[in-house]
Amino acid sequence: MFQQLSEVDRKICQGIALGDLTGEIAAMVGLTRRGVEVRRNKILEHFGFSRKAQIIRLLVRLEENGLLPG
């Protein structure tokens, strides 16, 4: 499922997992803070998640299983 996300959305997820602030993620991916917030909410909806912490857990599991793209 993670592979189905766009590259920008994957970078947003990785920024969230690293604890980056919304403004930092926005600068990294070339969006506004609001743009990142909207995309983050769409990512949560895509996975059926309700909290950012669930994105972090997903990435940890993917990394532990060697499934996180480099």
Task: Provide the CATH architecture.
Answer: Orthogonal Bundle
The N- to C-terminal Cα distance equals: 16 Å
What low-confidence regions span 5 or more consecutive residues with pLDDT below 50? none
CATH class, named Mainly Alpha
Quote the average pLDDT.
Answer: 93
CATH fold label? Arc Repressor Mutant, subunit A
Strand-and-helix sequence, N→C? Answer: HHHH
The rounded Rg comes to 11 Å
Instruction: Indicate the proportion of strand residues.
Output: under 5%
> Roughly how much helix do the residues carry, as a percent range?
55-70%
Task: Tell me the number of structural domains.
Answer: 1
Per DSSP E runs of 2 or more residues, the count of β-strands stands at: 0
Report the total helices.
Answer: 4
Alpha-beta classification: mainly alpha
The CATH fourth-level homologous superfamily: Winged helix-like DNA-binding domain superfamily/Winged helix DNA-binding domain
Mind explaining what this structure looks like?
The protein is mostly helical and 70 residues long. It has a single domain (2-64), classed as Winged helix-like DNA-binding domain superfamily/Winged helix DNA-binding domain (Arc Repressor Mutant, subunit A, Orthogonal Bundle), CATH 1.10.10. It is built from 4 helices and no strands. The protein has helices spanning 7-17, 22-29, 33-47, 52-64. α1 (7-17) runs antiparallel to α2, α1 (7-17) crosses α4 and α2 crosses α3. The radius of gyration is 11 Å and the shape is globular. The model has no long low-confidence stretch (mean pLDDT 93).
